[in-house]
Design goal:
The protein is α/β, with parallel strands linked by helices. It is about 30% helix and about 25% strand. The protein has one domain: Formyl transferase, N-terminal domain (Rossmann fold). The chain is globular, with a radius of gyration of 17 Å.
Length: about 210
Amino acid sequence: MAAAGKSFRLGVLVSGSGSNLQSIIDKLHRGDAGIEVVLVISDNPGAYGLRRAENAGIPTAVFPLGDFPDRPAHDRAMADELERHGVDLVVLAGYMLIVTPALLDRFPQRVINLHPALLPSFPGATPIEDTMAYGARVTGVTVHFVDEGTDTGPIILQEAVEIKYNDTVDSLRERIHAVEHRLLPRAIELIAAGRVGFDQENPRRVIVEGEE
């Protein structure tokens, strides 16, 4: 939670189109909640999310993985840039690389991710396709803290999405995106307001004040 009179500063990491970044900009950036996106980072110089940030007057930085000798060096450089911008919370919004301890240790319990499935089911890079292939009847969206595993961090918010009998991957993805664009800004807003904490007896259980 930011100090009184100080904005709550977000650093957002993207790899592609940045539609979830746009939802953050539209719903939260410099609004009544005192939340500001101060930096957008991508590993992909051609990511459209960078253009979205530039259109909103938000600073950007690009860190192609091939420019660094290994993942830790890459993530240390990103962490340095995030710290230079005074970031309070790091948001992975369609960022397709695994984040290493080189960054996580600099922002303990301050990195969150959005995943288009009801974790712990269907982690990984293709959850919508995997859910459809499995024949599941329900999927959803998860916002969770990031740890060293793949989509294994403590869950903040989840919302279910029904899989209809005539759904395709594309039609299901479209409905999931609509939930993502609402759930991710809500999670950020709760964290910025100091309404998200951890159960002392079970550190994997996230307590969200005022949420059922």
